[in-house]
Amino acid sequence: MRAAPTATGIPLRQLLMSLGEPLVELQAAPAGLDVPVRDVAILDPEDPPAAAPGELVLAIGARGRAALPALRAAGRARAAAVAVKLDSPGQADALREAATEAGVALLSVRRETRWEHLDLLARTIIAGPDTPDAPDFNAGDLFSLTQTVAVLTGGIVSIEDASSRVLAYSRSSGSDEVDELRRQSILGWQGPEPYLAKLREWGVFQHLRSSDGVIEIDAHPELGIRRRLAIGIRAGAQPLGAIWVQEGSQPFAPLAEQALVGAARVAAAQLIRRRRELSADVRLTRTLLTGLLEGSTGPQSLATHLGLDLRRPATVLAYTTGAGEAGSDLELTRAEVTGLISVHTAARHRGALLAPIENRVYVLLPELPPGLPVATLRSWAQEVVEAAREHLGVPLRAAIGSTVEGLAEVRSSRAQADRILDAMGRGGVVPDVAALIDVQAEVLVSEVLALLQERSELRDPRLSALAEYDRRHGTRLAESVLAWLDALGEVRVAADALHIHPNTLRYRVRRAEQLTGIDLAQPQQRLLAMLQLRLAE
To answer: Which InterPro entries does the UniProt entry name for this protein (predicted)?
Structure first.
């Protein structure tokens, strides 16, 4: 979903204080640290370098000197800062010089950091305090809460959601106080598996989901893990997340557990309110998007709701799972697949919108840059398909609809994506990800087969009788004729495909002609036989 930038933003100084080590390090700030940061932009290496005033530009995929065009474009647009990853310390000199010349701040990002994680955290910080009706608690936002809990407990604090994603964390006084579990969690990675296995064995995660009490976890020096306190964030019986406090260079404060109990209640109120606000907005967005894709609502409602430009290019991607998905885990799998598509697509296009409809998930990519290559869209979809296979064990297929000139034509892009998925679902040698140009023949054949399926009067009854003969007598005449047609009459090629002797194949083809009266020497009858027998297959 597209996030509207805040009117005034927050000073770069405040953003850096909240993010801090180990995510980013300031390399240059030629305009000072009071420049306002209003929004976050993800700049893909295949996109032309561009920025807007007050943006924090995340230059993904552009390491070292490759980020120079992004720095210059950000300076011309009066962006607030550019964040890049460095392959070596020596690269920073050239980039600092370019940033100073462009008048834009330069941030270096640790190589292990996940861009989508940094994007989420930066947006959360820029969004600032919650609404005025928030519980009476300092600044009201989660980052302020973690900092206050750190003061009250004497530890180093992080707040996670129910999926163990870090939502906010406190600043630490020195990197020597931070253990490897906290460092990897903030960078977006999981902690050491032996330690996580111990937490599961001790029932820590179960305790956090089911109890309102604080749990203490001993230090594990052999794993580089310090002592911790943790408490679940809950709304009644519903788990919302957890607060973790790592012990630093000093022991926990005497009233640390009491502070955690109060902090969990405040965090629960904030998370519930945010979830309600986001849920209502997500439902409205999804309703408008579904209506646009199905043709029941026009584009203006969605454009007004999200501030989209009706005249910018747009494309629809469609995803569906492979055959064989069934059982009690079906709904869970669909939810996991939808979440995975959402995360990966948002990392590539921050305005991407999702709408699950029946057994497919549609992604609308609005406001695309003019002339975006199909190869770029194909690579984005391929990332999703590979991630679903690797992380969920789910076979996923993706179709790329046509790029249309504006939101008013989005339905035709969806229709093309559906045509491609329909063809892919009928089998044959097709890729996991396809645009129409990749499977033009398969799509045409698929649609002709669909027409034959729907209208029995177009089918040749003699070929239908041949398939019925095979069923009654246990023969394979129809299969043999189709293999011979697919091999363009090459008997040995077709016989090898069926693992039979060439003379057996010749006999079956002659027998099929005798039974049906079809003359396979006639091109039109060969074409019809190929299509109709493929339908029966």
So the answer is: CdaR-like_regulators, CdaR_GGDEF, PucR_C-HTH_dom, PucR_C-HTH_sf
d(CA 23, CA 124): 15
Tell me the Cα Rg of the chain: 29
d(C-alpha 104, C-alpha 12), whole Å: 11
List CB contacts of 15: < 8 A, sequence separation 6 or more.
37, 56, 122, 125, 126
Please compute, for residue 458, the number of CA atoms within 13 A of its CA located in the half-sphere on the CB side.
12
Strands 360-365 and 353-357: antiparallel
Instruction: Supply the DSSP symbol for 255.
Output: T
Distance CA 347, CA 321 (A): 21
Domains and CATH numbers, the chain: 10-126 (3.40.1390.20), 142-274 (3.30.450.40), 308-452 (3.30.70.270), 459-536 (1.10.10.2840)
Express the helix, strand and coil content of the chain in percent, nearest 5 each.
50, 15, 30
Helix (H) or strand (E) holding 227: none
Residue 110: both structure tokens together: 């640790």
Q: In what order do the strands lie in the sheet with 238-247?
A: 166-169, 155-161, 238-247, 228-235, 214-217
pTM passes above 0.85: no
Residues paired with 81 in a beta bridge: 56, 105
| pLDDT tens by residue, 337-383 | 887 888 778 778 878 899 999 889 999 999 998 888 999 999 999 98
3-state SS, one letter per residue, for 478-522: HHHHHHHHHCCCCHHHHHHHHCCCHHHHHHHHHHHHHHHCCCCCC
* Cβ contacts of 460 within 8 Å, gap of 6 or more: 518, 528, 529, 532
Residues near 391 by beta carbon (within 8 Å), at least 6 away in sequence: 340
C-alpha distances (whole Å) from 435 to each of 167, 177, 388, 443, 512 are 37, 51, 19, 10, 38
- Structure tokens that stand for 197 in this block: 């296995």
Q: Identify the top-confidence range among 160-174, 249-263, 321-335.
A: 249-263
User: Exposed, middle or buried by CB within 10 Å (0-12, 13-18, 19+), for 373?
Assistant: exposed
pLDDT in tens, 22-52: 678 888 899 988 899 998 888 876 667 778 8
**8 Å CB contact between 140 and 152:** no
Q: How many whole angstroms separate alpha carbon 322 and alpha carbon 336?
A: 15
